[in-house]
Write a structure and sequence with these properties.
163 residues; globular; 37% helix; alpha+beta; eight-stranded mixed beta sheet; 5 helices
Amino acid sequence: MLTLRRMATGGLVLGAAGNASARAGDLVVISPSALPYDSLRAEDVRVVTADGELVEGPKPSVELPMHLAVLAERDDVGAVVHTHSTYATALSLVGDSVPVADAAPSGTPELGEAVLAAAHDGHAVVVRGHGPVCFGVDLADALARAFALEENARIRALAKLLA
């Protein structure tokens, strides 16, 4: 919950946009779908198996397949943060960003495949016109990468305007 609230207060998402997940042993904890982050409670967090079977709570984030794909493929990743930050997303539309994943429909395995293909061994990808997906050893690490990515994108966008 803290990660989601930091995403919102830091301007990386609005309302219930974006999502976050983390390994919890053999399970995955993931943010809920369509609940505003400022009113989240502990019981709103979802728990699923590595195959996506719901263990606890109602509907998980629509982006569950993407999170599960990254966590299954990358043993070095313990958490995934997906934001809709303005500058990184805008730069992805003009091909001026960190690795850009081709857009795929939200909530599909194809989106996870596109993210993994663009990331290679890296820890940040921007889904074209959709938003960043950052990986880390834990939620704090993934969130720090999301903030760094957005700050660098903001500086780059402003520099391009002033050039």
